[in-house]
Amino acid sequence: MRSGYAKTREEKVKWADWESNRKWLARCAKGFGRNSIGGLRGKIYVVTDASNDDLLEPHRGTLRFGATCNEPLWIIFARDMVIKLQQELMINSYKTIDARGTNLHISNGVGLTIQFVQHVIIHNLHIHDIQPSSSSNIRDSEDHWGIRTRSDGDGVSIFGSSNVWVDHLSMSNCADGLIDAVSGSTAITISNCHLTRHNDVILLGASESFAEDAKMQVTLAYNHFGRGLVQRMPRCRWGFFHVVNNDYTHWIMYAIGHSQHPTIISQGNRFLGPPNRAAKEVIK
């Protein structure tokens, strides 16, 4: 946890006893996703079962059960777990997935999807080796399930959603993007993440023709773009993007990409270019 979260004496006390003050986290987002409250107003829900992943009737105690509930929930984990998702995990509105105190891996299966919802916080997960999925029936809330088409293999996919905070994730080696935010998504912060070993890292706005993404506002702060990354850190279209205080440790093609006249404020970043003189371009 960044010491920068705690400014006042009260905040330092809260962070020192974070297990008793888990929901204090919801006050700590900065940037465009700062208003996200996640499951602040809900009960604590404990994931106890990492093995069962029923797509239509998820069992109580599983991550899928908590994520698809209609009520606000603050989701935590009983112990270290490796969760292999059969299909996309559809995350409903007003949810926090908080893995502090555990070693929690979402891996060797399908990733997380935040679609047409609001107020979601994802914190302290390892997400890696994510694969595409075939078409399937999947539940996305207590009162709705439907056919999902094939997923691309993103680690975290944000689609038409707002007030989202993605924080303290360790991510690598997904079939498509590590994090994608598209189709009118806005009010997003991606912070304190460690990203390695990947080609298309972060995509913000997927289409040259989808002008609605002009409203997109995304902050990327305090992330480490580590070894083995190729491009899109991030790749920006249309919107307004604040890329601040990130650490870039080499890349293979370029760091930040843009098209369709986005506004990108790059501030306080450290760029350590690759040894290849032909690939030292920061912005493309």
TrEMBL record:
Name under which the protein is recorded: Pectate lyase
Keyword Metal-binding: yes
Pfam families for the chain: Pectate_lyase_4 (PF00544)
EC supergroup of this enzyme: lyase
Catalytic activity: Eliminative cleavage of (1->4)-alpha-D-galacturonan to give oligosaccharides with 4-deoxy-alpha-D-galact-4-enuronosyl groups at their non-reducing ends
InterPro entries documented for this protein: AmbAllergen, Pec_lyase, Pectin_lyas_fold, Pectin_lyase_fold/virulence, PEL
GO molecular function, one term: metal ion binding
Bound cofactor: record note: Binds 1 Ca(2+) ion. Required for its activity.
Documented EC number(s): 4.2.2.2
Spans through the membrane: none
Lineage: superkingdom: Eukaryota
Domain Pectate lyase: 80-277
Keyword hit for Calcium: yes
Homology family: Belongs to the polysaccharide lyase 1 family.
Coiled-coil stretches: none
Record key words, sorted: Calcium, Lyase, Metal-binding, Signal
Cofactor(s) it depends on: Ca(2+)
Pathway(s) of this molecule: Glycan metabolism; pectin degradation; 2-dehydro-3-deoxy-D-gluconate from pectin: step 2/5
